[in-house]
Amino acid sequence: MKIEEYLSSLPSSIISGEDVELSDDTLREIFRFAEMTGNDIFYHLGCGSGNSIAIASQEFGVKSAIGIDNNKEKISHGKKLLDEKKIINGSIRHQDIIDTDITDASVILFWFSDEKIIEKMILKFQSLRPGCKIITIWGPLTGCMPNKIDFPYILNITPFKKAESLRDQMLAIFDTDCIDFAVAWEYADRYSKAIGSRNFENDRFLTILQTLVIWINAKNLGIACGDEIPEPVKSYMGILKTFFNIEVEHLLDH
Fold this sequence. Notes:
The chain is an alpha/beta fold. The chain has 2 domains: 12-163, Rossmann fold, CATH 3.40.50.150; 174-251, no CATH class. It is built from 10 helices and 9 strands. Strands 3-2-1-4-5-8-7 form a 7-stranded mixed β-sheet, with helices on one face. The radius of gyration is 19 Å and the shape is globular. It starts with a helix and ends in a 10-residue tail after the last helix.
């Protein structure tokens, strides 16, 4: 099957990231990356069970930390967590992120893959006060040049800088003149470790998939190193096709 068919066979909650909870260590890395301080008003859009709100409040001493999620069960868990930890500068709301008021935000963690949601939220972000930091994971805000990168963490600051092209955006993210297999693997591995589970085999599989996606996108944009398909890329394409019945070669522009 083509990779698109494989992805469509997975539960939508996995594809959207709804059922992926970032580890506490990953959240701390993100907050250090954003240089969060006691003057910040932090929002986590899609906060899940609320660990990010607790850590932002207790360990980074933000002025206020607000979690937004539309999952009632997770919101209930998050509110219980804040009560248990006696956190008074943190709160969690059961709302749709598109409708919620974030006008006072200075730092926002936003990790969504749905293009329709991203487009609507970019318009919402553009109306925020200058200097507001928007943190994404893996992918940058569509059409925007990042202000700071520590892949897979990407930071855009309002007002956004427009990217002239997807090619320029990718080169900025990967901080290189061209992308070879080693670069693609390194960055895919960083992503797997940032969102990784306790199941090493699943993380390895994710790294392989993401490596191929990075390299194929680079090839199609003309920023891959060399004209030929590297042997490791051919090997992993073969492994996916032979052992998992997943085909990715059609993604290449021939």
